[in-house]
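Quick look at the format.
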Amino acid sequence: MEQASACEFFGCAQLQVPPNKTPQAEACSTEKTESPRRTGATVNALLSGGATDTGMVPRDIPDLLREKLLHPDIMIPPLLWLFSEAASGVTGSRFTANLWDATLLPERAAE
């Protein structure tokens, strides 16, 4: 699937993307990076970095498997930074939440 058709099919404003559609969503965000530059809007991709314990995971999976899932709260530190003034000029980037080092200043963690 080409980037343009991926964006048209999945919609760029979609907030939750099923794991099997992540590459298409990333293609969509990459494609949409150029046009917003003229308006001041930014487009970035924030991925959890693995299977995450959300409502998309069946409730009846074994506890052993559930323990291996990432907790959704790992998205909060990079998301807060992306919404901050410090990230206002950041666009066209991909961030992976489970690699975000919360012990660093957010600008350093984003590198």
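Next, a different chain entirely:
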Amino acid sequence: MNQLRAVLMERGITIPQGRRKLGQHPAVMLDGDEVQLSPRVRLLVEDMRAEWSALDHRIAAFDDEFAAPMPRRMMLPAAWRASPGSAC
């Protein structure tokens, strides 16, 4: 996010701090003609947004994985699982 904000700041576009404000800014959304960016910078911003989105999806997947209940056999110490007469 800070890299994206820095690229835009180098071109005279300042964006308030905060993830939501950055994501909703027209320069980041690449909407409208009021934002004057060269084709190369537009491509760079698009790539940074795609990377940001992919990272969000990966984080959400990890969150889901960590929130999922763990199977009981994984909760027991390995020594207990290997001992005769264990409940697993």
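The CA atoms of residues 48 and 87 lie 51 Å apart.

See the schema section for token definitions.
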